[in-house]
Specification:
single chain, about 200 residues, alpha/beta, globular, about 15% strand, Uracil-DNA Glycosylase, subunit E, six-stranded mixed sheet
């Protein structure tokens, strides 16, 4: 079974088995989307209204801004993989609760272990705090973080502000674009380390 089929089967399994209570109020699960062999996976926090209706992550204004930033570094949406820590829309776009994140965490880990990305980029503090609960995004955005994670092994992470927050804050927007611009060099460094080891 190749990666697209394996991912499809994984999502189908979790749509059936996920016990997240957000399921009750959501239109559908919003599963990860993109290239199953991507070097980079972006993780947001939860689907919004547009995502819930269309069943794809990052299809609203934040997704459009993300697409522009990918374009700036010579990547397309098809080159990357994008998902959320929670696969169902929270009511009124509120932040996902710890138990909701917990209910979706194995789904996310299995998704990441199938893709085996070289770099995982967090879009916002919620996805970052899932992996790094003590970090503040204002302190670590744009920095490469490394840790071993169960089911993933030693992994490289990059914390970024969420594109939605940056849309309404000019200063954050330019910071996010600057941090985003570091991605090609970071990926190159990780690849050269992997080749050397």
């Amino acid at each position: 079974m190749n990666s697209p089929e394996a991912l499809k089967a994984l999502h189908e399994k979790w749509v059936r088995e996920c016990t997240c209570t957000l399921k009750e109020g959501a239109t559908q699960a919003v599963v990860g989307d993109g290239n199953p062999q991507a070097d980079i996976v972006f993780i947001g926090e939860a689907p919004g209204k547009n995502e819930d209706l269309l069943g794809r992550p990052f299809v609203g204004a934040a997704g459009k801004f993300l697409g522009e930033m990918l374009d700036d570094i010579g990547l397309k949406r098809e080159d990357i993989y994008i998902t959320n820590i929670v696969k169902y829309r929270p009511p009124n776009n509120r932040d996902p609760l710890p138990e909701e994140i917990d209910a979706c965490k194995e789904w996310l880990t299995e998704e990441l272990s199938l893709i085996k990305p070289k770099l995982i980029a967090f879009l916002g503090r919620h996805s970052m705090n899932h992996f790094f609960p003590l970090e503040k995004i204002s302190a670590v955005h744009g920095k490469l973080l490394i840790r071993t994670w169960p089911g993933l092994g030693r992994q490289h992470f990059l914390a970024l502000y969420h594109p939605a927050a940056a849309l309404y804050n000019g200063g954050m927007r330019s910071t996010l674009k600057e941090d985003f611009a570091k991605i090609p060099a970071i990926l190159k460094k990780i690849k050269s380390e992997t080749t050397a080891s």
